[in-house]
Amino acid sequence: MKLVICGGSGFVGNALSRHWAHSGHEVTIVSRKPPEARTDGTDAIAYAAWNDFEREPHRFEGIDAIVNLAGESINQRWTNAAKERILQSRLQAAGRVAALVSKLERKPHTVVNASAISVYGASESDIYDETSPMRVEDFLSSVIERWEKAADEITDVRLVKLRVGVVLGNDGGAYPLIRLPYLFGAGGRIGSGRQWLSWIHIEDIVRLIDFCVSNPGMEGIVNATAPHPVTNDEFGRTVGKVYSRPHWFPVPSFFFKCLFGEMSMLLLEGQRVMPRVALSNGFSFRYPTAEEALRQLKS
Questions:
Q1: What is the 3-state secondary structure (H, E, C) of the chain?
Q2: Which of 61, 83, 88, 145 has the greatest CB tally within 10 Å of its CB?
Q3: How many Cβ atoms are within 10 Å of 268's Cβ, its own excluded?
Q4: pLDDT grade for 75, boundaries at 50, 70 and 90
Q5: pLDDT for residue 9
Q6: What average pLDDT does the segment 58-70 reach?
Q7: Is residue 213 scored above 80 in pLDDT?
Q8: With 0-12 CB in 10 A as exposed, 13-18 as middle and 19+ as buried, what is 145?
Q9: Considering only CA atoms, which of 266, 200, 267 is closest in space to residue 229?
Q10: CB-based contacts of 115: which residues, under 8 Å, 6+ apart?
């Protein structure tokens, strides 16, 4: 297939582009500052700039699918300026994809637009799936609401709105920072420890995106989370077990609130999210439990 990844130079995008290149697909990464080319041991991965969507739309005729992962990192202090960058980067990326698709005579059959599970709200008792309503009650959920509305302007294709949980991998994301205190023997729960962590292994999100592109039954909202979410305390105990380190040093909520400000909600709040659509369509998780995922990452 001919596949385009917007935001393909990030943590998930890098893993996805390598997977598709090694599988023999033609991959184009769209980024703000693209190099001329890259070779990952198999086929060359081509690069394009966002402006190419407007300047050279013919270049994208005949592509099979677009995956949009683009957006300013949320892992920064949420000043007013940062909030605006986080929002506008996502709205602009979705808008550019919609504009490109509208111009193409031979349109892609699928567009996968990533967002996040924070739109379900935070709860220690509720269980959410793709049928659960949005709860727009904070900055991040308001961003996701507007992000997905922008994605709805992508028409005449099969649209998948992928709501992503915490992606576990060694090369990026939150896991290396979560693991670090345990390696020094100082790991423990964060805040109450009762907040849910809905996670997915990096290999499984790559496989799930590929599954979404290849399977016509995957459409609309799809939760990209493993089928066995855990609480923060359970996850920490699993990290300690895998690395044979103690789980004993709790970090109080106020420490994170002082250190990260409003962004601390990413660590102190959570939601228990189930991947009902993926499972009902026959997707099989390679790492369904946290212990399996962490042992693989350690290996």
A1: CEEEEECCCCHHHHHHHHHHHHCCCEEEEEECCCCCEEECCCCEEEEEECCHHHHCHHHHCCCCEEEECCCCCCCCCCCHHHHHHHHHHHHHHHHHHHHHHHHCCCCCCEEEEEEEHHHHCCCCCCEECCCCCCCCCCHHHHHHHHHHHHHCCCCCCEEEEEEECEEECCCCCCHHHHHHHHHCCCECCECCCCCEECEEEHHHHHHHHHHHHHCCCCCEEEEECCCCCEEHHHHHHHHHHHHCCCECCCECHHHHHHHHHHHHHHHHCCCEECCHHHHHCCCCCCCCCHHHHHHHHHC
A2: 83
A3: 17
A4: confident
A5: 87
A6: 97
A7: yes
A8: middle
A9: 200
A10: 144, 147, 148, 151, 161, 162, 163, 164
| CB-neighbour burial class of residue 153 (10 A; exposed 0-12, middle 13-18, buried 19+) | middle
**Residues 6 or more apart whose Cβ sits within 8 Å of residue 82:** 72, 76
Q: Token pair of 264, please? A: 């601390």
Position 40 scores a pLDDT of 52
- How far apart, in Å, are the Cα atoms of 177 and each of 8, 170, 172, 173, 180? 22, 10, 9, 8, 5
Answer positive or negative: Cα dihedral of 237, 239, 245, 250.
negative
| pTM of the complete model | 0.95
Question: What mean pLDDT do residues 130-156 have?
Answer: 96
First to last CA, the chain: 32
Report pLDDT for 266.
85
Amino acid at 18: R
CB 169 within 8 Å of CB 297: yes
In this structure, the number of other CB atoms found within 10 A of the CB of residue 55 comes to 11
